[in-house]
Design a protein that fits this description.
The chain has about 240 residues and is an alpha+beta fold. Helix content is about 40%, strand content about 10%. Pfam families: Aldolase_II (PF00596).
Amino acid sequence: MTTRTERELREELAAAYRLYAQFGLTDMVYTHLSVRLPGEGHRFLVNPYGLLFEEITASSLVVVDSEGHPQQETSWPVNPAGFVIHSAVHRAHPEADCVMHSHTLAGMAIAAQEDGILPLNQINMEFYGRIGFHPYEGIAADDNLSERERLVRDLGDHMGLILQNHGLLTIGSTVAQAFYRMYYLEQACRVQLAAQSTGAKLHCPSEAEVLRARQQFETDPDQGQMIWKALRRKLDREQPDYRD
């Protein structure tokens, strides 16, 4: 990850929160997007508990430690229990500078299915064999240290997780990469549900074809950067206050 200043990371993460709201990826004030801050120790930016994602600005984001405890003055509470999943991933994966979590209708519906993402469309093929699966263990709690270990194990070297009966998670070396992965993982879930809802017999290409498509995605040097820049321009036109 190219070193970003705290200010730059605040603006990038605030942009991601606004885009979550714009694309219908939110669950009211719940779920989190987090990014690691540069420097020594474990310090991260996360949303204040109680703000809608459409309200979040760069300055409203809160610096927390690896346990989700605020490391700055804030007039808004922070939910340490809600940071449990992020904390586990950040600490175990130094390359995971950004972690995003969602509770969307499509994501939760796929999380309720045993087979996960099916290679029904080329969007879905990008995630073939690249998304881990974490069995449901109840609501994440900050005192359940053993689940953190299992969550990290289930993530392995994948780019994201399906949290059984819960939702989706993606990681990235940048905010842009984590958002790109979350947006298209969500689209993969929507495609699958739409195809399943027809009741027609579903067609999956051969594994060789699926793996070829996945490799094409993996060797694309852009990895969502062009999309991210375009979305930032859109926000700058329509919601410039996210930078405040």
